Amino acid sequence: MPRLDDRLKLVASLIRGTNHADIGSDHGHLLAALLATGRIQRGIAVENKPQPHRNSTATLQGLNAEVRLGDGLNVIQENELDSLSICGMGGQSIVRILANHSNRLPDQMILQPNKAIGSVRQWALNNGYWLVDEQCTAGTRRFEVLLLRRSGMALDPVYRRLASVRLEESLGVMFGPWFLLRRDEDLQQRLAEEQRYLHAKQKLTAPSRQRMEAIDRLLSHDHFLSR
């Protein structure tokens, strides 16, 4: 069985299903590990380039899995999956894949965006998926993993919980509602460092100023000061 790094170990720990697809599987290691441990029964790796397709094909040979060459969900059929993962892409690329074929999305998705994570949380809010958990890896590089489940268009309960401690929905989308509710110490430390960096800059772009103001509001909030 291939050895997974901490990022993919965290992703794997959140996956359990019958038919699972991994979009952009690269070497197929995640699917191989899921099949070997019985966390899924059948796997589909989707690659959009020939070399990753060959890599995944070699890794998954002899396992209950297939490798398809295509872009995102283009090669997935409606109602074919009950679970889906997309790891190691930017948040906007993930949102594009999800939005292009919303009728092919399963009820459960595990997503690991490398950047623009807020865009994935916002997509979930707008499209009837609840963020039932989010976790992150330890160490110098923070990888955040989101677990989404289809739940209709009612407001996600985690954002109602944020409101109960007087935290804005927009702060949850930007920084992660579960991390905020848990008072994630690593996130607070990183935001404090970013706050010092942004305040030291003489000129800020509009998005950077908006982020700085959001960090200022968050780090001065009673929810964090009352630790």
List the main descriptive attributes of the protein structure presented here.
about 230 residues; alpha/beta; Rossmann fold; 2 domains; methyltransferase activity; transferase
> Low-confidence parts lasting 5 or more residues at pLDDT below 50?
none
Sheet-strand content, in percent, reads: 15-25%
What is the CATH superfamily label of the largest domain? Vaccinia Virus protein VP39
Helical region count? 11
User: How many structural units, i.e. domains?
Assistant: 2
The biggest sheet amounts to: 7 strands, mixed
End-to-end gap: 43 Å
Report the principal-axis shape: elongated
CATH architecture of the largest domain: 3-Layer(aba) Sandwich
As for the CATH topology of the largest domain, it is Rossmann fold
Helix-and-strand structural type: alpha/beta
- In CATH, what is the class of the largest domain? Alpha Beta
- Average pLDDT, all residues: 94
Number of beta-strand segments: 7
Radius of gyration, whole Å? 19 Å
**Fraction of residues in H or I helices:** 40-55%
- Strand arrangement, major sheet: 3-2-1-4-5-7-6
Series of H and E elements: HEHEHEEHEHEEHHHHHH
